[in-house]
Structure formats: C-alpha cells, structure tokens
Amino acid sequence: MNLQDFMLKIYRKNYFIIRTSITIVCCTIATILLFSSCTEKKRPLAAAITNRDSLPLMKSLDVTTLISDSGITRYRIKTKEWLIYDKKNPPYWSFEKGLLLEKFDSTYHVDASIKADTAYYYSDKKLWELKGHVVIKNVQGDKFNTEQLFWDQNLEKVYSSKFIRIQKSDRIITGHGFESNQQMTIYTIHKTSGSIPIEDKKVTRPDTIIVKH
C-alpha cells in the first residue's frame, strides 16, 4: 500500500474545503464592514481575538470521504474530527478522535488499511505520527500492531522505536524498533523478542529480522 499516494489524494480532495473556508471568512468580514459603515450609531466592539494561532483553519466532523483514481473509487477515509492548524509552530493536521484509512481492490473489497486512535500530520516536515492502538494491514495481508508509528514522506520511510507485533500468514514476529518502505512490504525489525511459526510454535530470537516480499 503506497501511503504517500493515498494521503496526497486525500489532501487534494479536501483542499477545496480550505479554499472555500477562506472565501467564506473573507466575504463575511467584507459584509460586516460594509454594514457597519452604513450604520450611524456606533456600537461597542468586543475585544479582538489575539490567539489566532490556537484556532484551526478548518474543522470537519464525522468525515467519510471516498477518493477516486482515474474515475475508480480506490480509497476511503473516516474520522470523527479533522482539524487543520495552519498557525501553529509547526503547523499540523489533527485527528485526535481516531483515523481510519482504507484501500480498495478492483472488486471494491478493502485490501489494505491503517487505523489509529490519534494521528497528526506535520505539513512542513511532511511527517505523519500515528499513536495509541495503531493497526496496519498491507496488501499481502500482514498485520502490524504498535503504539506509535512515524511516516516520513521526504525519506519515504515508515519507522517506530516502540514494541511491534507483526502477524504474517505463517508466523508472528515481535520486537522493539521497526523500519519499512512506504508500502510496508520490505521491513526490518530490531531487537526481536520472538519469531513464532504458527504451526509448530517454535520460538527463535535473532537480534534483527529483515523481511522482503
């Protein structure tokens, strides 16, 4: 699953929301100013908002968005709350009430997915942080479980320093520390604590396991 292409499509799909929000805000301000100039009686003004950096540019609730590629529905994103903070240092997108991303195959069945209790996207760094109960399934059917995962778009790398559990078709691998390509198909597990074949339950404990598909 190409995470970078997935999230770029989501961004492009929702970019018009940001542009629309800015247009609405500008029109509203213009209307207020025009109305005020035509009013003879002056009214006391409320204190100006000085903490713009603490307010989101965009807030969307109960979002379910389908993303198309060449006219075919390929992706779906679900979240209870999506906030974009453009004035924070650094600026970021916030999904503090959970995030679910799904990829469809040619028959519209989900063949890969990402789920997290909390997610942040730092737009300047092009860095994703997934936290809480993070579950990822790649197109080969491998299932990844961890409590924190980073995805660096610039480096085209997914990584974590936390405990990770990977369930493959023939075995379960656990360890502390993980690096992978963006498709989650070529990865390295550091400080492995177990490699358990599902059939015979035999445990091996090498320092590092490298898996390639």
UniProtKB/TrEMBL annotation:
For this protein, the parts annotated as crossing the membrane are 16-35
Q: Which UniProt keywords apply?
A: Membrane, Transmembrane, Transmembrane helix
Q: A cellular component term (GO) from this record?
A: plasma membrane
GO terms of molecular function: lipopolysaccharide transmembrane transporter activity
Asked whether the keyword Transport is assigned, the reply is: no
- Asked whether the keyword Electron transport is assigned, the reply is no
InterPro entries (UniProt xref): LipoPS_assembly_LptC-rel (IPR010664), LptC (IPR026265)
Q: Which Gene3D superfamilies match?
A: Lipopolysaccharide (LPS) transport protein A like domain
Q: What is this protein called?
A: LPS export ABC transporter protein LptC
Q: Which organism is it from?
A: Bacteroides luti
